[in-house]
Specification:
Blueprint (H helix, E strand, L loop, with lengths): L1 H13 L1 H5 L5 H32 L7 H43 L1
Helix pairs in contact: 1-3, 3-4
Length: 108
């Protein structure tokens, strides 16, 4: 899953300026929205798994609790950043698509 996340994030980062400058065509917007939908799903699944880990972790006394909690904190922060990124990119793509639709209507 990490490789797919990396690929999706790289694709979106590479095309961010096209979305932001409203120069992306509809195919690029559709592909970007598809990557964002998968990212949002992956974040949701990851949060669910981490929640289960937290619920069940209290039953284990491994001696590495501090390290585990620190890693979980970093993971949660990263997932939050990915969620915020996807929300912002969805906004950029939606605006681009709306402007393209309005331009097509005005030309018709």
């Amino acid at each position: 899953m990490a490789a797919y996340l990396e690929n999706s994030l790289a694709f979106l980062a590479d095309n961010h300026q096209a979305f932001k400058n409203r120069t992306a065509d509809s195919a690029l917007c559709t592909l970007g929205a598809s990557h964002l939908a998968v990212l949002q799903g992956d974040v949701a699944v990851s949060l669910t798994v981490l929640g289960e880990l937290v619920i069940n972790y209290g039953e284990v006394n491994s001696g590495v609790e501090n390290a585990v909690l620190q890693h979980m904190g970093h993971t949660l922060r990263l997932l939050g950043e990915v969620a915020c990124f996807t929300e912002r990119e969805y906004g950029e793509i939606a605006t681009t698509v709306e402007l393209q639709a309005a331009e097509r209507e005005s030309q018709a």
